[in-house]
């Protein structure tokens, strides 16, 4: 079933799609839901998110079974699994139960120190896209844990060994297959992933206004700006977007620091 879904996704990218096949696939997937592995459940909802609504929308029956299976699988999720699940659900048309969302955030917190820069970006994008209007203690704790670990990661010029663990997986957004090890990164490689994360935080703040919950801390902004400065020294000029986003969040002094590097 996973191979068929992957094949359909690849065919779709070449302009070929058969809705009747997906209907049959969904019926088989519902019947087999209890047999999917945790990593497969995450891949499942992530791959389904690539279909446009006019092509295929998983039924209420499918998601009812998937939610139940996911609740049992969350304790076994690794950072990539949580990130893919959050991103997949965020792009689906389904109402996600608050308890399931909170459970995913708690698992992300538990696994945060095993998260690579790729995982951190995926976790943040997924959490922001899926975040409900009423924020829970879990979302607050997720923000604190994410910012603390991201600050350590981006300030550290080398990757901790745990990033390359055999089961940690890679980021599908980085064009590597799920289940493989993440590629080794350059000393400032974390910048590129956390640059996307900072941009996502700004977009979230602009859309959510006073209800925004995923905002950078002073610790993260400082570490992020220091890395942006290293990038500026390496590239010969500062990134104007990096300067602007720091000013947007009120870190004028850090923005001025980058202007000097430019």
Short descriptors:
262 residues; mainly alpha
What is the structure about, briefly put?
The chain is mainly alpha-helical and 262 residues long.
Taking the sheet with the most strands, its summary is: none
- Shape descriptor: elongated
Q: Count of helical segments?
A: 12
Mean residue pLDDT: 84
Structural class computed from helices and strand pairing: mainly alpha
The Rg value, from CA coordinates, equals: 19 Å
The total beta strand count reads 0
Order of SSEs, N→C?
HHHHHHHHHHHH
Beta-strand percentage?
under 5%
CA-CA gap between termini: 52 Å
Q: List the uncertain runs.
A: 159-187
Helix percent reads 55-70%
Could you walk me through the main structural features you see in this protein, from its secondary elements to its overall organization?
The chain is mainly α and 262 residues long. Helix content is 63%, strand content 0%. It has 12 helices and no strands. It has helices spanning 2-13, 19-31, 38-48, 60-73, 79-90, 98-110, 117-130, 137-155, 190-208, 218-235, 240-248, 252-261. The longest helix has 19 residues, at 137-155. The protein is elongated and about 60 Å long. The model is unreliable at 159-187 (pLDDT under 50).
